[in-house]
Specification:
The chain is an alpha+beta fold. It contains 11 helices and 12 strands.
Length: about 400
């Protein structure tokens, strides 16, 4: 008998700006908030029946160390018998967790798996490498773990270890994606995000963080226009096209999903079925294009094509890489990130994959569309994608 994995419930914290409202909250506490929020949406589920928790986190260098997934389980007050692991595929960590959890259910290894991810880019520490010998006479340099490469192996080719922004500047030049297109895309992300919050689309998804007065995602700027963004200076090259306005910001936040088999006693109907998964890798500097083939693989495994897809959640690391993916897929841009994307909502690395899956499941349910794709690019040349099927439409 073929088993399927279903999304039963989802919750996330609001996403805070770097140094913003969530700066005082530890990442393990953010993870706990999302975990408890998702489980609160399946009140009839016996927590002792959770077979595993698979948690994503890209940093793991500070308060998120030593298996932050297990720490969240313990801090949430779940039975100590509930196991947990933490996975790291950088920006794709919680989408990877979702893929791993759904596979475990499909193979019969589990009936209920909670997945998700967390990142506090604000609280990511500086690190200091140990000296080769004791009592060195020279100075030592601290390395920030907030984003990007650190303590790089000298054998790595320089083109592989270029900054994320520099890699995407090269992508913009190679594909002739103009500054104007990027700024227009970014402004649209803010408009859609603000409209989605105003319409109440996130009311069922976002849970408050104790002790913090933050009701919505902190990076959204509702009045942003392409004209205003055009006045910003390039961030990575004097003659470049990428700015702080058309790239995702640095953020703090967490997101979680409850996955289960069809027969699991959760007390709520499934939101969506995980119908296909795809993983792809290419040259590290071309990471922005990696979701293209990952999504094609996921669609093929789901047995559908782009013509069947009614909703797409593509993590907006940069406007240029998002546009590159849309151009390659040749899809209607109106079905992409209809409730805003990471440029507006934020991109707390380890949480973003679960965030886009949760949003996609709710978008499918609201719109009645049957099929959707969630995809994400990952630094160092990788991409992931998941296809969801709206089971309410399937039943109809």
């Amino acid at each position: 008998m073929t088993r399927s994995a279903f999304v039963r419930a989802a919750a996330r914290t609001p996403f805070g700006r770097f140094g913003g409202a969530l700066a005082g909250v530890r990442p393990d506490d953010l993870a706990t908030t999302a975990l408890k929020g998702a489980l609160a949406r399946v009140p009839e589920l016996d927590a002792a029946m959770i077979d595993d928790v698979v948690w994503g986190c890209a940093n793991q260098a500070g308060e998120d160390n030593r298996n932050v997934g297990r720490m969240a389980v313990l801090l949430a007050g779940l039975p100590t018998s509930v196991p947990a692991t933490t996975v790291n595929r950088l920006c794709g960590s919680s989408l990877d967790a979702t893929m791993m959890g759904s596979r475990a259910i499909e193979t019969g290894d589990a009936d209920v798996v909670v997945v998700g991810g967390v990142e506090s880019m604000t609280r990511a520490p500086w690190v200091l490498p140990k000296p080769a010998r004791g009592f060195p006479a020279g100075n030592a340099e601290l390395a920030s773990t907030t984003l990007g490469w650190r303590l790089v192996n000298e054998r790595m080719p320089t083109e592989w270890t270029a900054s994320l922004g520099a890699c995407n500047e090269a992508l913009a030049e190679r594909l002739s994606i103009s500054r104007e297109r990027q700024d227009d895309f970014a402004a649209g992300s803010h408009r859609r995000a603000a409209a989605a919050w105003e319409a109440g689309h996130y009311a069922d998804l976002v849970v408050p963080v104790a002790g913090v007065e933050l009701a919505t995602d902190e990076s959204i700027r509702p009045r942003t226009t392409a004209e205003a963004l055009a006045g910003l200076k390039p961030a990575f090259s004097r003659t470049g096209t990428i700015t702080a306005g058309n790239a995702s910001p640095l953020n703090d936040g967490a997101a979680a999903l409850v996955l289960s088999s069809e027969d699991a006693d959760c007390g709520v109907e499934p939101l969506a079925r995980v119908a296909g998964r795809g993983t792809h890798a290419l040259a590290p500097q071309d990471f922005g294009l990696a979701p293209v083939e990952a999504a094609e693989k996921a669609l093929a495994r789901a047995g559908i094509s782009w013509s069947d897809v009614g909703a797409v959640e593509l993590n907006e690391a940069f406007a240029v890489q998002s546009l590159a993916c849309l151009d390659a897929w040749r899809i209607d841009p109106d079905i992409v990130n209809a409730w805003g994307g990471a440029i507006a909502l934020g991109h707390p690395l380890g949480a973003s994959g679960a965030r886009i899956v949760a949003t996609l499941a709710h978008r499918l349910r609201r719109s009645g569309e049957r099929w959707g794709v969630a995809a994400i690019c990952i630094g160092v040349g990788q991409g992931l994608a998941v296809v969801l099927e709206n089971v309410a439409t399937e039943a109809a």
